[in-house]
Amino acid sequence: MSENRVAAVSIVVEKKESTEKLNAVLHEFGEYIIGRMGIPYKPKGISVLSVVLDAPTEIVNALTGKLGMLDGVSAKTLFSKY
Which of 32, 49, 61, 80 would bridge with 11, disulfide CB 3.0–4.6 Å? Predict the structure, then answer.
C-alpha cells in the first residue's frame, strides 16, 4: 500500500433513502476518517457532506467508488500533496 495522504471527499446526496447505506460505507472506512460535516439543504431536498481522511490513495479511491455506486449519491475527491 502507498503512503497516507490527506484527502477531502465532497458528497452530494440527492436521494434520502441512500443515507443508511452511505453511513454504512463511511463506518466501514471509519479508521481513516479525521472528521466529517453534513449540511442538509431543505429547499433543494439534498444533503452535502464533507469527509476528511488520512489514508492511502487506494483506500480513498475505494471509498469514493463505493459512494458513487449508491443510488442518488455523487462523490468527488481532492488530495493534498502530502
Answer: 49
